[in-house]
């Protein structure tokens, strides 16, 4: 005995401060040595009952261990336990997954009743699962949780969706542009459909938007990733579900939080475009290439203006965010009310964004009734980059000629333009951005109220009614201006678009919750209905007496156009769910939902979507006991489910006759309106179906590590596609047909480490996530044809949907270096010995004859790379020391390709828009060591065709967020009635490591078939912010 | 409505599932409130008329700014490949078409294909559905079907001469099994065109009242019927058809050549078929042509896309009038430094000081009004006029060996240009050459030259191949011309990618 104690003492001394590894080794040694003879006299029997501190329900299966021994038991189905201790001074440890452990000295008592409090640390918090909540430890499906701290660290950004970027494996967050207020696209586990790929966002029970919630108000975000988790939302959940829960007030004293931050956004990088001198050099060589004299006007570039358009157009811009929250309440009634205001300018000339949010969340309890209501209001105002007609303004910024003056007092509008002697006359981007006023004013109001009635102890009825209205107003005014002969607007025009959308939702659910010993059962049934109605009106007038009058009625009526549309859809659903668990070991969840949608004809209207998931917690099994000291929780999960998706078009199945002036003609000097069937409707449109399988593990080990891993595989059939049909049918609009098949598969890992508390006050945590998506098109169209992405300006499409490839795969001509001499051209022959590129000259691009037909043309395109990364990752590091805290968030992708269309524009060299300076390195007989082909204006070899020359590696590692905070000492603050004051400095998008040469590898087109295509996108800014949070 | 739905559903929901479902399954029955559907269209003569109007719209090209489509999709293919013009190269699709470097993705070729087939799609709707409408006004119904048939034939004529191997589609496809249609032989296409034109000629009126001016006539149908026979070398059929037009007395040459192209002479007695334009905006649609801008010099604010070349200028300068003056058609067709006529209100030297050797086309310039270029043109596009009929008739007669009868028709055209009568003993081959010469002088910039070159295989007397003609007349890219390939355009890439039964044309 003494010997044993001594050994134990020595071992602990040796391994002290060695943390987890020591406990591992010690436990191993102790098990090996054995401890049977340790117990002897003075035995005392202790018994009692363990209950949940909140619900007061008994807790079966709780581990009860005598501290420092292997003696222990667990509670029976009624939460009761009984065991013997050696000494009256022994101590009992009560532990249960999902609850905070309790350590209770026996102190000679023979009866000890314990209540355990649910614990909300990583891996054990309550998770909102849709029409209910579940303990995270009880989940059998794949659900990720984003904690409030992650959301709020990123809250310098005015959209809560940004908080998901890089923090959640399998969730891809891309920004459609760097413009202030730009739409943020969320994709959960890839794309399943040609239609809507956006996940369903549920805010406090009703469909909503992450943009309408202040990050400060969010209590948690849950991402339901697999079909089993999402299936309760049926057909609306085909792209996953994001559930946002806002903070509730707490009874007691009134709490106030104020947060304010101010920052500066600045452009990160610029493309290398020619200055006037370089322009003249390149243009002279182009003229020479077609046997023309250099332009005399460019003979003396020093005498011409020299404008760096990118630096003139992109400037540093301020960003300001503030938040005020007040919460509190009494025992039976709590509230949380807040206001948020975001105000920022964009780095692009004359762009801005302002958003105001008002949010209210209240709870009341009255006997068996519970009420909960949420009211939110959002007002959003944006000034956009103007469209720019044939060439978007963002593109004009790098295409603008360096010798165009920015200002010219003599011109109407005051802006300069291209001189008349140059053939290409881009608009002045600064002039257009200043003169043309394009704004958006959106107003959303969302009201959600629910009432619960507890019939019996185990039976609960809930009715939820949600209503939202949004009013959008988009005015766009173009005054008269003169920039050059080709770039002038002789008549002012005004376009105003107003729309109103309202949506209502009613959900009735009945919940049965019962525990029979080790058996826990939850049954939920419900029925829901919702309807959405959208209506818009557009008015357009041309010709105004002057540029200061811009209302439609002030128009001189040169051109008048008005239009409007009305869209409505409705859904009616029935749903049911069974959740069952046995003794914290075995879990089963089964869902079924039947949806009816107005977007289908009567025969195909209803779809049934079942799912099931199971889980097994090995760590609760007795055979696992020896490992329990190293692995605290080990659960494996498997799920399978079916989800549906419907068309985005409300009336796809109804054929129409277009009766419109657009089809009109002039007869007898008067205008007749025309009518025709312009397209083919498919009356057999039916549900798209996604079948999804997920296998995962949740492991908590060495006390401080949490690991979640998932493998998923899903296949979508009957994908609705606008199948391209021959132009000889006479229509350019393609009928919607259920014909495609896609599959997605991948793995996702998330690993968290929380350091134990140390005496020094230093605490840190690290979270890393990793995910892969393999997307593949299995079937398309009628004959496995290729669907091309939309063509770029002056260019063929660069990406396709094609069987066997990922969606949006790059499909390009294969550039194979440069012909160095005539002999190489003559030797470059096809199968039958014909010279493949007879028009080529030395210095031209060599292309591969992919289809082997002996001719190089647009049919020689081939798969050249995927816009999807091989993997994506994020690492979040948080540390605190005394009053300082620090956050570092890294995020990136590996293995994706980007088509750099901006580079292609600048290097095309077939017109006189500004040139990329790489053209200075063009091939010449004396400059042969280059990858830039010779300069040739008429380009007989088609060097300027989109090809693999412009496809670049899009991998990157981004220092997304770096934040340092300091919390002022509490004793100091308490004297002035302040409970907390934290100040911080935050850098967002600090720097990026990437081989990509364009503006930014992280957002490059967000459409299904133009993912990874970087053309004319508003560049992302680097933002440095300072702010403070004050609580009292 | 929505509020009512909401309250109803809310109310019934409190009484449980059964009541709820009966209460809200009705909301799944939504109708499209935005358009008419085929089931409630095709009811009366105004529906029929509206559908036929939509066919005409494809004759025009797209409305709005896109009325320029007529230029892009119809006029460019007909003008740019000829040997009479020079072009600037700032629109790559046009440049590659003109220089015979085009590929299947050429936007102008596919635009021509799509515009014609869209017109055919709408015409098929009319031809299929109008006969089923119960209307007492059978005359109007028959006429509308006749208009649809003429327009369908016109679209197929354009397709056949541009693409040679084309699918012939005569009904509205019922479902996806009918979307891909294989190509017919050119002979089959010709038979269909001739059938439609004969049907149309049988029901179309000779002329219309003012309210219907601009609709296609019997004369237009006969004109294209004769032209179709001529293009196939069916000389006797051509002669018989042209005779019907000439003997009808409906058409005559205007006394003064320059007057033919005045906007005020839209739909004149010389005209068999015109696309109707107007500068007045109608219901937000502009129905005007950008052709004046396309052809005007940049000094006048135009785009100067295409212009006469030295060859056409020389052709028109060859012969003096009976008063020993230049051919009046030269002045009316071409603006150059030697012309005394003003351009956009200015003398040549004031307008073109930096570019005195340039030339411009005048027929569609709007220059007759000496107006400043400030808006697109409202002048109708003359597609088929009587002078062309006379020359085609003469050509058919001469081919039949009836040279002495043919001379008279050529002389009518010559006399209007103040040129002397040809000798009635002119040889067949000399008259052939004269017809070719007159077609150039009379019809320059009107879009028939390229199709003449293709049907003749070069010069009318086979003395030069197409390539030799193009090279001799300095047509840009003439060197690139490949016989057996470039006579026709490539079947568009978009068709090849979607039509499972189509084959690319030779050489592409």
Q: Could you explain how this protein is built, in words?
A:
The complex is a heterodimer of chains A (1032) and B (508). Chain A is 9% helix and 46% strand. Chain A is mostly beta strands and 1032 residues long. Chain A has a 22-stranded antiparallel barrel. In chain A, strand 22 and strand 23 form a beta hairpin. In chain A, helix 1 packs antiparallel against helix 2 and helix 7 packs antiparallel against helix 8. The relative contact order of chain A is 0.10. Chain B has 508 residues and is mainly alpha-helical. Chain B has 20 helices and eight strands. In chain B, helix 6 packs antiparallel against helix 7 and helix 15 runs antiparallel to helix 16. Chains A and B meet through strand 23, strand 26, strand 27, strand 28 and strand 32 of A and helix 1, helix 2, helix 3, helix 6 and strand 3 of B.
Q: Termini distance of chain B?
A: 59 Å
| Helicity level of chain A | under 10%
DSSP strand content of chain B: 5-15%
Low-confidence stretches of chain A: 1-41
Name the helicity range of chain B.
Answer: 40-55%
Biggest sheet character of chain B: 2 strands, antiparallel
Shape of chain B: globular
Count helical runs of chain B.
20
- The ordered H/E elements of chain B are HHHHEHHHHHHEEEHEHHEHEEHHHHHH
Count every helix of chain A, treating DSSP H or I runs of 4 or more residues as helices.
11
Which class of secondary structure composition applies to the elements of chain A?
mainly beta
What radius of gyration of chain A results from the CA coordinates?
A: 33 Å
